[in-house]
Each structure stands twice: as structure tokens, then as C-alpha cells.
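# step 3/5: fold
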Amino acid sequence: MALAMPSGRGAGSLADDLYALGVLIAVLLSGGNPCAEMSDEEIVQSKINRGSFATLLSSRRFSLPCTEALRGLLCDEAEERWSVSNLEFWANGRHLSPKQPLLPSKAPRPFVVKGRDYWNLKVLGAALGRDWSTAREVLVGTKLPVWVHRGLEAEKHAERIRAAMGAWPRVMAGVPARRWPIWRSTTSAPRFVRPSRP
């Protein structure tokens, strides 16, 4: 959800509220906003590359129970994030083991856009989602699927990107979406256009 534009984030859920509670606790324990000197883009990139817990609290040390609760509340995958029941168990002295964040694969060489290095697809996608004219230039070129295939060894992702690139002229020509190659190459609506949750 953090990658979506504010107007596209929806009404939110209890999981989002619990994440916000984790951020509030982190700010209170830190004595202020730990990301105050970072831009919104830098915060998003750090969360993708390192996870929310490390972004907010990497330079701080807390007790094991406190760290356990913060890791659970700041879990970037909503399905793995602590629930109210988990918090109740923790408050009653039960030890839970929050899952470590699943960080994106890093390519051995960066994909360079306008002089900036991007080492994984999520950070690159977030950047291109904020700059459509640059995204168009990247999709018209041929380097992106090659980088994804060779650098990240993600052939399925590379094929989806190739399909999206093949669909671009049809978008400009007003061809209905059901006739795009990517529509036929996936079993559901194209996932590359969906905003991610935190």
C-alpha cells in the first residue's frame, strides 16, 4: 500500500492500523521521527530494500520483548503482521517469533535510469510509477527484460515485461485491453499495474 498513490490506497484495514501503531511506538521510543531527514522516496526505497523495522529502528536497541512486538507490528506483509490476538498473547508473556522480512533479490549490476542505480524490481517499479514519461522510455527500449532475465534470473517477470512492452502500441492506438498480449499471457488482470501493500 505504501507504493500506491494516496488516492488509490483505499479505506485501509485493521492490519494497516496495527502497522501504524508500530510506527507510533517506534517514534515514541526514538524520541522523534527516525526518518525526519529522509524524503518520501528515500523512505519507500529503504523499506523495500531493508524492511520497515530496519528503516525505522536499525540504529536503536531495545529489550527483546519490545523488539519482538515491533517486528511483529512492522511486518511489511499484511498477512504475516501481528493481529490483536498476537498482541494479547505477547502482553500475557507469551513469546512469538515474527518472520524476518523477505527482501527483494538484488541484481549483480544495477539498472540505470537517468543516472540513478536500481538494484531490484520493486525499487525500480516504485520510481517508474512516479515518473510516467521515463517509464514510457524504459518500456519502449529493450534493456529492461534483458536485465530482469540475466541479472535477476526472473524469466517469468521478464516475459510479463515483454508482454507489457508489446501491449504499449495497442494502448496508444486504443485497442481494447482484452486483445493485448499480456491479457492472454496471464490468468488474471495484469499484476504489474496493481499497487503493492506496505
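# step 4/5: annotate
The chain has ten helices and two strands.
# step 5/5: archive (pending)
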